Amino acid sequence: MEQAGVRRSERWLVRGVDLSVAAGEIVTLIGPNGSGKSTTAKMALGILKPTDGKAYRRPGLRIGYVPQKLMIDWTLPLNVRRFMSLTSRLDEGEAKAALERTGVSHLMQAEVRHLSGGEMQRVLLARAIARKPDLLVLDEPVQGVDYSGEIAIYDLISKLGEELGCGILMISHDLHVVMAATDQVVCLNGHVCCRGTPTAVSQSPAFRELFGHRAGAALAVYEHHHDHVHLPDGRVRHADGSVTDDCAGEHCADDHTHHHGHAEVATGSEVKTHA
Ligand SMILES: Nc1ncnc2c1ncn2[C@@H]1O[C@H](COP(=O)(O)OP(=O)(O)OP(=O)(O)O)[C@@H](O)[C@H]1O
C-alpha cells in the first residue's frame, strides 16, 4: 500500500498508510477501536478501494482471510465440513488436511454453533489456509479465546506461516497479544502512528502517548519461549520434539502454569512474570 486511505461521507476512516507484506513475513496492525485496522486490511484484500493512494497485490495472488465478523445464521444446522466449503469448494481430502494442520480434524462432523471460541478460530484458520494462500489476512484471530489458548493460536499462526511460506497480515485488537514472532508492527490511529519491531514500537513515544506507559510492558510478554506445547487434542509436545499424553514427567508436574517460563498478563493492566 502506498499512502493509501479511505474516505466516506466527508471523513477519512484511515489515511496515508504505507505497508507491504512479503512472503514469509508477519505484519501486525494494532491500534485503538475505530483506528482503521479493518479498513486497512480490507484495502489489502481488495474489498475496499483506496480513495487516495494505492493498494496492489501481486497478480494471481491467492489470499486466505479470517474476517472479524461472520454473517451466519447460527440457528441453522451447519457442520464444520460444510462450513469449510461455504466460500470455496473443497474436497474431503483438502478440508481434512487443513483441519489437521490447525489441530481440529476430529471436529469435522461437529456443529459449528457448538464449537468453543478456540475451536472456532482454528476452524476459521483451517478454512483460510485450505487453498494454500500466498497471503493470509487475519482480523483478530484470537477473539473469544482465553489467555493460554491465545498463545497456542499465535504459535500455530507463526508455524503455519513458516510451513506455507505465506505472508501474514494480522490485526490484533488486544495490545497484550502482539507476539514476538511478528516481524513488523504498524500502529494505526487514523494514520500510521508508529511502526517497527514489537520492541521498537513498544518503546516509541507516539505509541506510549496513545496507549500509556503500561502498554509497552504488556507488549513484551510474548517474548518468551515455551519448553513444551499443549496440543489441541490434549497431548504435550516437548522441546526435544517428543509427544506424550501429558506433561507430568517434565516441567509441569504440579502446576504447569508456573513452569512455562513466560510472562503472563494478569487481569487489568498489571503484568506479572512466572519463574
Ligand atoms: N463503510 C463505512 N462507512 C462509514 N464509516 C465506516 C465504514 N467502515 C468503517 N467505518 C468507520 O471507520 C472507522 C474505522 O473502522 P475500522 O473498522 O477500520 O476500525 P478498527 O480499527 O478495525 O476498529 P475495531 O478495533 O473496533 O475493530 C470507524 O470509525 C468506523 O465506524
Automatic annotation (TrEMBL):
Domain of life: Bacteria
One GO term of the biological process aspect: response to zinc ion
Residues covered by the ABC transporter domain: 1-214
Cross-referenced InterPro entries: AAA+_ATPase, ABC_transporter-like_ATP-bd, ABC_transporter-like_CS, Metal_Ion_Import_ABC, P-loop_NTPase
Region (Disordered): 256-275
SUPFAM superfamilies in the cross-refs: P-loop containing nucleoside triphosphate hydrolases
Keywords annotated in UniProt: ATP-binding, Cell membrane, Ion transport, Membrane, Nucleotide-binding, Translocase, Transport, Zinc, Zinc transport
Gene3D superfamilies named in the record: P-loop containing nucleotide triphosphate hydrolases
Molecular functions per Gene Ontology: ATP binding; ATP hydrolysis activity
Pfam family, one: ABC_tran
Entry's transmembrane regions: none
Family listed: Belongs to the ABC transporter superfamily.
Protein name: Metal ABC transporter ATP-binding protein
